Amino acid sequence: MSDSGKGWEKRAAGAISRRAFLAGLAAAGVITACSGGGSSNSTSDDSTGRGTEAPEPRPAPELGGDPFALGVASGDPLADSVILWTRLSVDPLEPTGGIPDEEVDLVWEVGTDESFDEVVATGVATATPASGHSVHVDVQGLDADTWYSYRFKVGDATSPVAKTRTMPAADAEPDQLMFAFASCQSWGDGYYTAWRYLAEDPLDLVVHLGDYMYENGEEDGEVRQAPVGEALDLPTYRQMYALYKSDPDLQAAHASFPFVFTWDDHEVDNDYAGDQQEDADPVEEFLERRAAAYQAWYENQPVRIDPPEGPDLEIYQTFDFGTLARFYLLDSRQNRDDQPCAPAGGPSQGTECGDELDDARTILGPEQEAWLDERFAETEAQWNVLGSSVMVTPLPFTQGAPRAFNFDQWDGFVAARKRLVDSIVENEVANPVVICGDVHWSQVSAIAEDPEQPDGPLLITELIGTSISSAPSESQATAIDAILANIPNVEWSNAAQRGYVRVTVTPEDMVAEYRLLATALEPDSDLEGGTTWRIESGTAGAVEVA
Ligand code: FE
Ligand code: CA
Known about the structure:
Blueprint: E1 8-9, H1 13-27, E2 72-75, E3 82-87, E4 104-111, E5 119-127, E6 134-139, E7 147-154, E8 157-158, E9 162-165, E10 177-182, H2 193-200, E11 205-208, H3 234-245, H4 248-254, E12 258-261, H5 283-300, E13 317-321, E14 325-329, E15 349-351, H6 366-378, E16 383-388, E17 404-406, H7 414-426, E18 432-436, E19 442-448, E20 458-465, H8 474-484, E21 490-494, E22 499-505, E23 509-516, E24 531-536, E25 543-544
Parallel strand pairs: 2-12, 10-11, 11-12, 14-16, 16-18, 18-20
Antiparallel strand pairs: 1-13, 2-3, 3-6, 4-5, 4-7, 7-8, 7-9, 10-22, 13-14, 15-17, 19-20, 19-21, 22-23, 23-24, 24-25
The structure holds fe (iii) ion and calcium ion.
The site of fe (iii) ion has 6 residues, from loops.
């Protein structure tokens, strides 16, 4: 299909060449799927990868339980393709998932609906021990803008049936997109009820903005005990992801929509910055840990990417929903400089010291910055949505000099933020909106053309989407809202409630519904006290409508 690759645009030459490589193999009838580092059996009967002959997996070993304990998921959808994922496990708390140390073949099927009366693509993918028994199936040759059902089979076991969809063609002009964004789902801090509500929404897509998993293990006084220690190496990162993935509400959300991702710090280590670890461990040692964390991230998410080799993994990408919206999923962790104005290993909150202004400082890294500038130069999307794991809005906690900031946010990278807004202005990027997580509160704010001059003309709207479960204490939440009430261009905040944001995009406006739980401290909370904000096309800043 000629649209392949036009939806997602990755800078990674590796990713592009891999796609071309796979397309070549598919055309040659060699494969229908990439199996995440394992071997693939031939099942394709035509050049588009839409093989529908019954595939022949090798006999499965005795697995001794439901091997789909982590659910199934889909992600990184294109107009003609989507990644299907699962990771075999019969025992999520076992680092190996209780799966024998050998290759296991799975059959995957894509149908027009949940009956699977019409199977449009099927194949065999191999789960290998080296990939944590995960599979990433790149299903090709699908129709644009179309819903499908999918499932996996291994031995006598069949996975839950899940739904996914392809994206509109690159030149399509959709009149609506509904997506949700979410972040920060500390297991110990609360229940995933927000995912249960999200799974029932009529969404096209879910954007996860990071802190999908928290590396710190069991702590005192938590609502849900995480019966595992701190994740420090590949077995323990795998174990932590498996714990998180075992949640039925999270599984329901994944089974309902394709996801796209960026990550934040906790996927590796709290407040890490590039090769700098929170506690200032030796760089070599930390990079080994980062390599394990990135490997586990890859194994556990439905991402269109090569398996990592070593501590580097390029994940930033753009994604177009026809001409209506372009998403920019930014990596603000891997290539950033250390937080300024604070001793290494110290808290990222501090008072301004001048270092934060240094022109040489970067949060995205020079390559990603140049890539973003190129993407801005070519975008013709009506809405340009930047997924940033950390906040862009300037947020001085105190008004007298010297002011206090959280230097883990873009406030620690003042010159880089100026380069971002300059690029948006120079390239006349239409309707720039940042969506963001990390801070565990809801916020609607805006960023001025000169971010340091908040009274000047506004340029970017920022929507911050609280957290699925991660939470400040009640007294902290009250204090946070009191501080935010005095910050220029912060229209609204709510630190007390957890939840997610549901966004409806049309050519005329973007409407953001804050879907908030009464509490995430109990398993079956109602939604309560949400609020809705509207951004009119051509304006920066949102207005409350309900
Ligand atoms: Fe978080
Ligand atoms: Ca974070």
